Amino acid sequence: MAFYSLMHGLAAIGVCAGLLVACGGSESVNLEQPADGGSDAPFVDGGGGIELPPDGESLCPKGACNYQTQAGCSGAQACQPAFSADSVTPTCAAPGTVPIGGACKAVGDCAKGGFCADGQCRTLCCGADYSACPDGESCIRQLSFNGSNGPVSAGVDLCFPVGTCKLFEANACGDKRACQIVDGRGKVACAPVGAGDQGAACSPQAPCIEGFSCVGGKCTRLCKAVASGGEPTCDEGEGRCIHSDRDPPGVGECTP
Length: 256
Hints:
Low-confidence stretches: 10-36
Order of helices and strands: EEHEEEEEEEEEEEE
Distance between the termini: 52 Å
Strand content: 25-35%
Shape: elongated
Number of strands: 14
Largest sheet: 5 strands, antiparallel
Helix content: under 10%
Mean pLDDT: 84
Oligomer: single chain
C-alpha cells in the first residue's frame, strides 16, 4: 500500500514547495505610481507584465497518458499515478465518481482529472502550470509517495487554494510556514519557509525566509508598495522598493 504526502511548493517566479505526497494566463495589476517616481517616492511601479504560465502539458512525465490533459486514456478511463516499488508512472485506470472539490477518502475516489489529497479531490497539474487549475487555485503542491528509500516524486502537482493568507501578517500560517508568493501572477498561500535571506541562492527546493521571495534564483526582500509608505521597507544597500506586475497589489521587491 502506498503512503502519500503533499509538499507545498512555490514555482512560476522561481519560488516553489501533506499526506507524504506532496508549485503561470495573463493578468496585471495597475497601481497608482506615487509622485513622479522620484527618489523620495515610497515605491516605483516597474510593470514588466505577467509571463505566460509554464507549459504544463509538456512538463508532465512521459507515459501511457498525460496527467494534465488526460490524453491517452479512453473516455471511460482516467490518467492516474501508478505506484510500483520505487517508481511512479502515468497509467490509465477506472476513475471514481467524486467531482473535483468534493470530499474523498481514498486515492481512487475522484473523477477523471482528480486526485484525493487532504480529504478533497484536487485537480492534477504539471510543472506549476496554474492555468490548469480552477479559479482561486494554483498548481502549488507536489505529489510524492513513501518509497522503500524515502519520498519518491510522482512528477505531478496538485491545485490548491490561493489567497488564503496575507503577506506581512505575523504568524499568518503557523510554525515553519509563512505567507508567500506562490506563482507568477502574484497569488499568495501558506508554504514552508527556508533559510535564504537577501541575495542568497534559492530554488523550489531551497526557499527563502519569511518576508522574502525567490526572484531570478536569488532571495529578494519584499516591501510595502503603497503611496503612503509603510513597513516593511528596504534596508540600506538593498535598493528601491519596486512593484512588478508579478507581485500582489501593495507589494514590491527591494531592487538595487
